[in-house]
Structure formats: structure tokens, C-alpha cells
Amino acid sequence: MSVIERTAQAVPTAPAERRVRLGGVTRESVLTLLGAAAGSLALDWVLYERVLPLSGAFGFLVVWYLLFLAMTWGLGRLQWDARTVRERLVQTVVGSSGVLVVALIVDQIVYVAIRGSHAASHSNFFTQSMETTATLSPITSGGALNAVVGSLEQLGLATLFAVPLGIAAAVFMSEVGGRLARPVRTVVEAMTALPSIVAGLFILGVVILSLGVQKCGFAASLALTVMMMPIVTRAAEVVIRLVPGTLREASYALGGSQWRTVLNVVLPTARPGLVTAVVLGMARGVGETSPVLLTSGFTSGMNADPFSDHQVSLPLYIWNYVRYPAPDMVARGFAAALTLMAMVLVLFVTARLIGGRRPGDLSRRQRRRLQREMAAS
What we know:
The protein is mainly alpha-helical. The protein has two domains: 27-120, no CATH class; 145-365, MetI-like fold (Orthogonal Bundle). It is built from 15 helices and no strands. The mean pLDDT is 85.
């Protein structure tokens, strides 16, 4: 036997590597979660009903969740190594958090739909105002048409004011820069966290009390503009920064100036993201109550002129009528809340459909037109 063979026999062979599979759903993991959930529920019931003097549904659920995590870890240690157990436990925490958020949203939607379906099921709710409706009037009288019209007009004016200012500020911070870019960004970030009632107080003090403008839909739209503009600015700045620098360099190489590059290259490329920024700002403004409460006033009749007299919106309509002791009035308030939720849902779906593409990606219509042009040439 040679020296090399003896050396090879003396060196111990390394154990075969075992592939660790992280992620995915297996039968063992599902059964472990089900067993941990059932065992923690039984133990929680014993503690609450037989051992400890505890009560309350919230505490019961919190203790159940903590026991569930503890049992998940314990059952996992009986089957897997420590690294796999940690990975499964983190997956459980993240997944349960997502389920909790979805459950809360569904619970809110179902609750509002149940409470407001009694009024929303009648067509008069969307075709009449509350001008001739008293507190004890039947549910077939009155509606929220004046609030829907007021919300649409106020939101439209606020969008008309906030979008140009927000996109211009975003272009300044991302394209122009300079010494003023940092202070402007700081102010925008501070305005993002601004309480909505402060915006209403600002318009109330400056526009209504100082300038003598009466409470109307126009004043409410100015308050909504203060709330929407930082949202539009922050989102637009992020989208503009995602535009590839090579497009700007190509424009400069062809002799384009900075403003022409921004107008003809940067903004068209970032158009889907800018639309998303605008719709997100609109969704923020459509549900604000406190600024509208301080600046628009309240009226039960129809007022389609936002520049004259008081004008009600959906958030203000909800705030006013859910406080009534009459059940039909409360039902009208919840029906208005359901209408407002539908409007916000439409805005977010629109943002998802229009702004789902990355900056520079072509839509289907643009790709078809490009193919036709290439085929014709």
C-alpha cells in the first residue's frame, strides 16, 4: 500500500450535505400549525375559564396568539432543526399579520355595508338631497346627492390646484436641485405628517377670517389642496428619480435644453407613476373631514356652486347624520360611508390599472402602434 493510499484512508470522509429547503408549504407544516392552533385554543380556554380570574375577548385573543406562537415553536423543535424552526416561526408571524390586516379591512367593509344597505338599497338615496327630509321621515325620503356633488366638485378643484404644484415641486427637487432643494424637501416631508385639522385651521384663519371669503366649497378645496400636495410631490419625486439617466443624456446629446428634456422625455416616461401619484393624492383628500368641517359649512340642500354659500361633502354628511338618534338617519350616514368607500376603491383600482407599469414601459396600445409603424416602414 502506497503512502498516498494510506493517507487517503486516514483522512475521515465528510458527511454528505443535506439540502435544507426553506419556504413553501408542506403537509407537516400545515398539520403543525393546525395542531398548535387547536392546542393553544384549548389551553387558553382552560386558563381563562378554570385557572386564572381573567375575562375579555381582546385579552383572550392576545393570549391565544402568544400561546399559538409558543406551541408552533415547540412542535417545530420536535421535527426540524433550529434554523428551520426560526424560518417557519417568522413565516407564521408574517402570514398571520397579513391575515389580520385583511380580516380587519373585510370586517370594516362588511359592517358598513350591513349598516348602510337599508338606505343604499333605495334609489332616492342617490337622486335626492336632505332639504325636505326631517329627522323622523321614512327611509324612502331624502338622500346624499348633494354630498356626492359637493365631494366631486371639491375634489376636482383640489386636484386642479394640487397636481401642478406637486409635480412642479417634484421636478424642482429631482431635476433642478441646488441649495433650495433640501429646504423644499424638508417642508414637503413635514407637510406629509401635518394633521388634517391644522390645514383646515390655516385656511380658516388666512382665507376665511383674514381675506373675508365665506365658507364654501372653494375654501374646502383649498384645505384639501394643502393635504394632497405633499402626497403628490413625494410620490412624483420618487417616480421621476426612477427615469433612467441615459434618456436624459441622450436628450442632451441631441441638443435639447433642460426644460425641454424634462417636458418631452422625463415626464412622458414617468407618466404612469405620475398618474398613480395623482390618484393617491385624490384618495387622501376625498375622505378628509376636519378641514371640510371648518371651511365649507353644512347645508342639507343642493348647492352645485362651490364658490357661493355652504356646500356639504360625503365625509361631512357622514359625520353629521351618524350622530342622530333616529335609526334611519344613522342608516343614511352609513350608506354615505359605503358610497365614499366605493369612490376610494375606484380611485385605487384606477391607480393600479394606469400606474402598474414601470417608467418607460410601453402600454399595449403603444406596442401595437409601434408594431404597425415598423410593419409599414
